[in-house]
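[09:14] KT: can someone run the structure on this one? pasting the chain below
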Amino acid sequence: MSFNRDAAWVLLAVLFAAIVLPVLVFYTGTATLGPYARGGLGAFLADYVGDLARFRLGAWVLLLGPVALVAAWRVLVALAWPRAGK
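[09:31] RB: done, structure tokens below
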């Protein structure tokens, strides 16, 4: 495992969690629960960013969940398949 490769995976997870995941949560919620009470996607994203700023647990879990999964996966891969010659 190289640091650059691991950092790239973590960066991709952060970008996915910050940009794509909230949009998926919004559309999944509107499909299953109905319209968002405070408005549309823009209002949802504004509330999400506001919750991040207020350190609300749910928003931070949504942001850091994929990062934790990628980090755990990279550690498991490193332990399961150690590089030869180390």
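[09:33] KT: thanks! Residues 3-33 form the longest helix (31 residues).
[09:34] RB: yep, looked fine to me
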